[in-house]
Structure formats: C-alpha cells, structure tokens
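Run log // design_07
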C-alpha cells in the first residue's frame, strides 16, 4: 500500500470482505487536532493503565491470599477485577501504539477481534455489577438465607452465565460486521476499534448491524442497569426502616461504594460515546478506588 496522508485516504471501489484480495487495512486515529502534543498527552493515559493493571492485580492477589476474603462478595469483586484487567489489556497496545509509535494501521480481522473483546468485557462489567447489587440486596434484606443462596457452585454458575450471555450476544454482531463491504475513507475516529465507528465506514446496508447492536446493548447493559437501580432502591428502603441508627449507618457504609461503582459504568459509557474519548481508561481507573473501598470498609464492618 502506498503511503498517503490519512485525510486524503479514499477507496472509490467497493471492497468486499470475502474477496481473495489483500486484507483490508484501517487507520486508527489519535487525538484530533493534537497530533503534535499527543506524545505528552499519552503519559497520563499510560499512568491510568498502570493504575488499572497494578490496582486490579493487587486486589486479585489480596483476595486469593487472604482466606478471610473467600466470600461471595469478594468473589464477585475478583470477577470485576479480572474484567477490568481484560478490558485494559485489549486496548492498551493499540492506544499506546498510536500515541507513541504512530502505529495506526490495523487489519479488519484484528479490528473485529478487538471490538469483540472491548464490547464484550464492557457488557460483562454490567453483569458482574448486577450480581454484586443482588449480593448486597440479599445481605441486607434477606440475611438469614444469604449462605444458602450464595453457595460456591451458584457463584460459579453466575459467572459462567454472564460470560455465556456476552459471547452469545456479541458473536452475531461481529459476524455481521465481518460481512460488510467498505469503500471511501478507511480512517477510524478512535485509537481503538469501536463498533459504531467501524460500521459507519461501510457502503452496504447497516440496518441489520444497527438492530443487532441495539439488541446487544439492551439485552446486557440496558437490562442490567434498571435491575441494579431496583436492587439499590429496595436496599435503601430496607436500610431506612432499620430502627437502630448505628446499624443503619453500617448498612449504608457497605452499600455506598457499590452504588458508586454501579453509577460509574453507564455514565462513563455514555460520556465516551458522546464525546468520542480516545481511551476507556477513565472508568477503569475509577473502579480501582471503589474496589479498595470494598476491601477496607466491608472487612471493617463485618
């Protein structure tokens, strides 16, 4: 491929994915209008990744090594840390490659794989947060049945169910993206592969892909967020009915961090979608402080 500027990159001929021609190449984008300074801007992003990776790794290490933390809530916390680690790793190389080495080229299949894991792990976060909200709901509203509801086998089934749901939802999405044909500009507006960004470059009918994308969103995050909200509304109502002010304060303390973590996911996803932020590291790093609050507060209370 001859070297041309990204702004003038165009393909007037329709390029189908199923042809035997050379694999399609897309171009990732750094921060628009700040190319001269994006090397320095990348330093805070890199630090966010370091915080995300080290913070989640430390949480996993503490939970695995401390036997007193081998409880349902900390199992869900570990699932969330694994999800955040995976989400960081699936975009780390692409984003830092664009910022530091101007490695902007990415093949279609690599882009689809990154898109699958990026959106899949994002949806998985909401599923794990829903499980954590239900855990807090049972802890406060149905304490006597907590140990019978959250057995090790049931926790494992919850984790596997969340994983299977995300794979089942994302697989049709990426398969139909693979069938698209592309022409005109091949320049993506992010420094990682974003599904909406990719299908907008297609010359073919995107209605099926749009429907599948909406179905994936509403069947995962769109379902989880109202359920999380309902759980915490019921929790707050139950807490307010506790006669003892001391017990009421303890119950509020154990739920505050969970509510903060649950609120971060939809707000950060919406902000990223509307502002086209170049990295999803912000919400990931925000989760770290909430995770540490879980470990400190809940161990102190119980």
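design_07 sequence
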């Amino acid at each position: 491929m001859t070297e041309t500027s990204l702004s003038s990159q165009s393909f007037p001929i329709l390029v189908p994915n199923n042809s035997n021609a050379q694999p399609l190449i897309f171009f990732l984008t750094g921060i628009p209008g700040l190319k001269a300074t994006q090397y320095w801007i990348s330093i805070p992003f890199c630090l966010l990744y370091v915080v995300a990776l080290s913070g989640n790794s430390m949480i996993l290490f503490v939970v695995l090594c401390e036997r007193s933390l081998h409880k349902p809530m900390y199992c869900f916390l570990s699932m969330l840390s694994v999800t955040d680690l995976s989400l960081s790793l699936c975009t780390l190389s692409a984003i830092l490659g664009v910022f530091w080495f101007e490695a902007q080229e990415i093949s279609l299949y690599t882009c689809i794989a990154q898109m699958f894991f990026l959106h899949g792990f994002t949806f998985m976060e909401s599923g794990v947060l829903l499980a954590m909200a239900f855990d807090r709901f049972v802890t406060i509203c149905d304490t006597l049945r907590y140990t019978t509801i959250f057995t090790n086998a049931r926790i494992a089934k919850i984790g596997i169910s969340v994983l299977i749901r995300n794979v089942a939802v994302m697989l049709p999405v990426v398969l139909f993206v693979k069938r698209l044909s592309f022409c005109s500009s091949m320049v993506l507006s992010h420094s990682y592969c974003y599904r909406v960004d990719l299908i907008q470059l297609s010359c073919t009918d995107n209605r099926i892909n749009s429907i599948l994308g909406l179905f994936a969103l509403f069947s995962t995050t769109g379902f989880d967020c109202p359920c999380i909200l309902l759980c915490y509304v019921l929790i707050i109502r139950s807490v307010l009915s506790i006669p003892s002010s001391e017990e009421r304060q303890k119950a509020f303390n154990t739920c505050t961090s969970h509510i903060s973590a649950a609120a971060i996911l939809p707000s950060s996803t919406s902000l990223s979608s509307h502002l086209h932020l170049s990295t999803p590291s912000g919400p990931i790093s925000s989760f770290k402080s909430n995770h540490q609050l879980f470990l400190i507060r809940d161990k102190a209370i119980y």
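The domain at 23-301 is CATH 1.20.1070.10 (Rhopdopsin 7-helix transmembrane proteins).
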